[in-house]
């Protein structure tokens, strides 16, 4: 039993560390009362986000209103390219992994939902679909955070 618990703890440690790194790399969860911009995002089965580039100001709190217009499950995960790539690799290793964090949303076909996020540092941040294979074929978008 001890061995099994140790294996589970070791396997979850990278997930916890990665989720923490994503939050710090790209911003923090935003407060709904602070929203200054709403950005509609469409996900589809062409493995594409629309728009594929958005611009926000550092310090701004944004509500992404995502809608899955496709016939398969899609995700929208906000993070640095390093964090997204690492997380996508983990998703390939552990198919069916389900998670819920403030910087991500998973939507079944026809579903809609939102993420409220405060971008705190100028630079480039991304959002991607981390369902295995989707990011790899281009289901990724860029957030340009200006001063």
From TrEMBL:
Molecular function terms, GO-annotated: copper ion binding; electron transfer activity
Residues covered by the Blue (type 1) copper domain: 44-145
Any matching Pfam family: Copper-bind
Top-level taxon of the source organism: Bacteria
Signal peptide stretch: 1-19
Keyword tags: Copper, Electron transport, Metal-binding, Signal, Transport
SUPFAM superfamilies to which the protein is assigned, alphabetical: Cupredoxins
UniProt-recorded name of the protein: Blue (type 1) copper domain-containing protein
Organism listed in the record: Denitromonas halophila
